[in-house]
Each structure stands twice: as structure tokens, then as C-alpha cells.
């Protein structure tokens, strides 16, 4: 039982760790509004496309975003919008 709980908490910690970067939080909040292509996210984040793509890969590996290819571009969407409730919750602590 304890091992099962440890595995569960390890998986949860991996998701929180993936979120633990200001750029990734910005990306997640941008995706809350709508599915967005990497080029638009690049413009919103202000980093080069390779940096944004690396952040998206971390988020994708954590299961927070999914991608859909359209032509040469990947369009990303949030897979678990309720995860942003967590960031809303900690806003009060962060002030």
C-alpha cells in the first residue's frame, strides 16, 4: 500500500515539476483559452521556437498538453484544464 502511494505521489510530483517554470505556466494559461500553434505561442512567450518547443515537450511528457499536426505546424491544447485551478489556488500564497 505504501509503495502504491509513493508511486502516486511521484507521478503527481512529476506533473507539478513540469509546471514549475514561469514560461510553462504562461504556455498553460495561453492554452486555457484555445488550441494554439507553436508560432503563436512563440510570439506570446517571446522566446525562440526551439525553446518554446522544449517547454512544450516537457508539458507533453507530463501529460498536460497534446499536439495535433496541421501542415508544417503543431497545434497544442491543454489536456487537463483543471490543473490551472492549482495555480489559482497558490496565487494567494505567492503574493
Features:
95 residues; three-stranded antiparallel beta sheet; 66% helix; 15% strand
Walkthrough of the structure:
With 95 residues, the protein is α+β, with helices and mostly antiparallel strands. The protein has 5 helices and 3 strands; from the N terminus they run ααβααββα. The protein has a single domain, classed as Arc Repressor Mutant, subunit A (Orthogonal Bundle). Strands 1-3-2 form a 3-stranded antiparallel sheet. The longest helix has 18 residues, at 2-19.
Output the CATH homologous superfamily: Winged helix-like DNA-binding domain superfamily/Winged helix DNA-binding domain
Task: Give the end-to-end Cα distance, rounded to a whole number of Å.
Answer: 38 Å
Which architecture per CATH?
Orthogonal Bundle
> How much helix is in the residues?
55-70%
Summarize the biggest pleated sheet. 3 strands, antiparallel
SSE class: alpha+beta
Quaternary state of this entry equals single chain
Taken in chain order, the helices and strands follow as HHEHHEEH
Please state the average pLDDT score: 92
* Largest sheet: spatial strand order: 1-3-2
CATH hierarchy class name: Mainly Alpha
Q: How many helical elements? A: 5
Q: What best-fitting shape do the alpha-carbon axes yield? A: globular
CATH topology: Arc Repressor Mutant, subunit A
Low-confidence blocks of residues: none
Beta content: 5-15%
Number of domains: 1
Query: What is the rounded Rg?
Result: 14 Å
DSSP strand count: 3
Amino acid at each position: 500500500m505504501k509503495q502504491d502511494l509513493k508511486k502516486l505521489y511521484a507521478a503527481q510530483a512529476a506533473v507539478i515539476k513540469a509546471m514549475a517554470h514561469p514560461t510553462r505556466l504562461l504556455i498553460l494559461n495561453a492554452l486555457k483559452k484555445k488550441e494554439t500553434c507553436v508560432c503563436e505561442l512563440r510570439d506570446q512567450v517571446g522566446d525562440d521556437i526551439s525553446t518554446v518547443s522544449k517547454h512544450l515537450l516537457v508539458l507533453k511528457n507530463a501529460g498536460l498538453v497534446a499536439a495535433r499536426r496541421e501542415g508544417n505546424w503543431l497545434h497544442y491544447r491543454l489536456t487537463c484544464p483543471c490543473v490551472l485551478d492549482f495555480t489559482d489556488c497558490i496565487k494567494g500564497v505567492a503574493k
